[in-house]
Design goal:
Blueprint lengths: L1 H21 L12 H4 L2 E10 L2 E9 L4 E10 L15 E7 L7 E8 L7 E10 L4 E3 L3 E4 L1
Length: 144
């Protein structure tokens, strides 16, 4: 009986020792580079209904490295977009070149006239650099 207890207590103790030794030292976390340092930053994106269209507007600051913006839309109730809280599938609907005239911030506006009554639309922007690297903006939503 004594041999059985010793044999069973050595295994778990050895496992714990291996786990503790395997942890190693970890460095402090490093904050990711800010959006402004890597390119443009979208400020105050919004969407509103005007007539029979959805008007998406936003400000872009520090756009000197942003080459173009891709506008994406998701329609609630379409394939892959069944519920409001589920992950959405976005489709690109337009691509706009960035206005790099040297100002610190620029205002942009996009009119989506292909919307239908009784539907919910979500929009997001992809800010893209010349290298092809893109970053997503926050999502804005409108019930039409």
């Amino acid at each position: 009986m004594k041999k059985f207890l010793i044999k069973n207590s050595i295994g778990p103790a050895a496992l714990c020792a291996l786990l503790l030794l395997g942890c190693g030292l970890k460095a402090n976390p490093v904050a990711p580079a800010s959006g402004a340092a890597r390119g443009g930053t979208v400020q105050k994106p919004s969407v509103a209904a005007e007539g029979g269209a959805a008007v998406l507007s936003w400000r872009l600051s520090s756009s000197d490295r942003v080459s173009y913006t891709i506008i994406e839309r998701s329609t609630l109730g379409s394939a892959g977009n069944i519920c409001r809280d589920c992950p959405r599938t976005f489709e690109p609907i337009d691509r706009l070149p960035a206005d790099n005239a040297g100002e610190k911030s620029r205002e942009y506006r996009f009119v989506d006239s292909s919307v239908g009554k009784g539907k919910t639309y979500s929009y997001r922007l992809q800010l893209c650099e010349e290298t092809g690297e893109c970053r997503e903006s926050q999502t804005v939503e409108i019930d039409f």
